[in-house]
Every structure is written in C-alpha cells, then in structure tokens.
Design goal:
Elements lengths: L2 H29 L4 H26 L17 H9 L12 H31 L3 H15 L10 H25 L3 H16 L6 H34 L1
Helix pairs in contact: 1-2, 1-4, 1-5, 2-4, 3-8, 4-5, 4-7, 5-6, 6-8
C-alpha cells in the first residue's frame, strides 16, 4: 500500500472518530438535554453505534480482528505508573453530584469510548501506519489522537489547561501505542482508556485551574518517563529480533 493511500485512510479514520461524538453533542444541544444521566446514555448509544460501524470498516479493510489486537495481552510493569497516573486526579476531590444511576451510565459510555477510540487509533489506524514502519505507527497514531482532542479548544475552557490536556492526549496515545506494540493486544489500553475517562468524570472538575494544571503536569511527566522507558524496551526487542 502506497504511503499516500495510508495517509488518506488515516485522515478518514480521524474524521470518523470526530463525527460520532460531535453528532451526539449536536443532538444534546438541539434537544437541550441537561440531565447527566441522559447525556451519558445518549453519548454511550452514539459510541456503541460507532463501534458497530467500526466493525463494518474493519471488515472492509480485510484486517483480522486478532491482527488488530483483539486478543489477550500480557500485563507488564508499566501498569504501576499508570495506576499512579489515574490516582493523581483524586487529589482534587470527588464529583459529589454523580449519582449511582449516572455513574452506571457513565461506565457504559466510557467503555464504549474506550473500545471505539482504541479500535480506531491503536487498532486499524495503527496497523495501517505500521505498514510504513513501527515508529511511524507509534508517532502517527499519537499525533492524530492528540489532534482529535484539539477540538477541546472550542469548549471555552482555559487555553493553557486545554493545551496541557492536548499534550496529555499525545503522551497517552504514545504510551498506549507502545503498549500495543509490546503486547500485540488492545485489551489493556481499552481498559486504561475507559478507566481514565471514568476517573476524569468522578473527580472534581471545578477545582482551581492552578491545581488542575499541577496535577496534569505531574501526570504528563510520569507519562513522558514511561514513554522513554517503553521506547528503550521496544528498541532492544527489535534489535534482538533482527539478530
């Protein structure tokens, strides 16, 4: 497959990843839905539909599901810094407005998000870019994942905080791609993605911007160190394989 063909497919997948949540957001705005439970259910159903459509795209791509990472993956020591990363936001406090029904709907929504986005960025898109080389697959999927989160610039939040969140999305995508490269599985990155989004909604989003920036900065530093460590492991593995 020619590089330009791969790039066109990558752009299409990026746009596809944006269309589903944007459509749900437009519907919520038009209907003026404000109840968190209803918002989570609507978004969850939209993401579930996106997952089903993604299966259709995968079928047309002729990738096998196992080739895309639909298999069990070994758990590595990288899960320890990831646990620390996900524990940090709780320093800001809990979202006390989240009821049990809303939390259940939130989990449904975020599991669908994890499957949908990881299936795109660390699944089919990763495999397309891998046809160029592994480095392109890791960097390309991370950059496109971060670009997908650049839409947050339109949310009206602090510009500094939003840029930091985009940086976090890039580092998250980079480490997730490295984990897929090491395990040949989407299992753990889907779980991580879902848990991260659930934690984000469970914790206090109304905390002072300064505190949010501090916590996000610590998370980014840990992700950067983890990315460097995993990169060294991947290079060593490739070196031994080449020998």
């Amino acid at each position: 497959m020619k590089p330009m063909t791969i790039i066109r497919k990558a752009v299409f997948l990026l746009l596809f990843s944006l269309i589903i949540p944007t459509s749900a957001g437009v519907y919520i705005s038009i209907k003026e839905v404000t109840d968190p439970l209803q918002i989570y259910i609507i978004n969850g159903c939209a993401m579930l539909a996106g997952c089903l459509f993604l299966l259709f795209i995968i079928q047309k791509s002729r990738f096998h599901l196992k080739e895309l990472g639909c298999r069990k993956g070994a758990l590595g020591m990288w899960f320890i810094p990831i646990l620390i990363i996900e524990a940090i936001p709780f320093i800001a406090g809990l979202n006390k407005e989240l009821s049990l029904p809303s939390f259940t709907a939130l989990c449904f929504f975020m599991v669908c998000v994890g499957i949908f986005e990881e299936g795109i960025f660390r699944g089919i898109l990763f495999q397309y870019l891998k046809r160029i080389n592994l480095s392109t697959a890791i960097w390309g999927s991370a950059v496109l994942f971060a670009l997908g989160h650049a839409a947050n610039l339109l949310s009206g939040k602090s510009l500094t905080l939003t840029m930091a969140q985009i940086l976090f999305a890039f580092l998250f995508g980079f480490v997730a791609a490295e984990i897929v490269a090491l395990t040949n599985s989407l299992q753990w990155v889907i779980i991580w993605h879902a848990v991260h989004n659930i934690v984000d909604q469970m914790t206090d989003g109304e905390a002072p911007v300064e505190l949010q920036m501090l916590l996000l900065s610590v998370q980014c530093v840990i992700l950067l160190v983890l990315a460097l460590v995993l990169s060294r492991i991947i290079k060593n593995r490739m070196h031994h394989t080449a020998r």
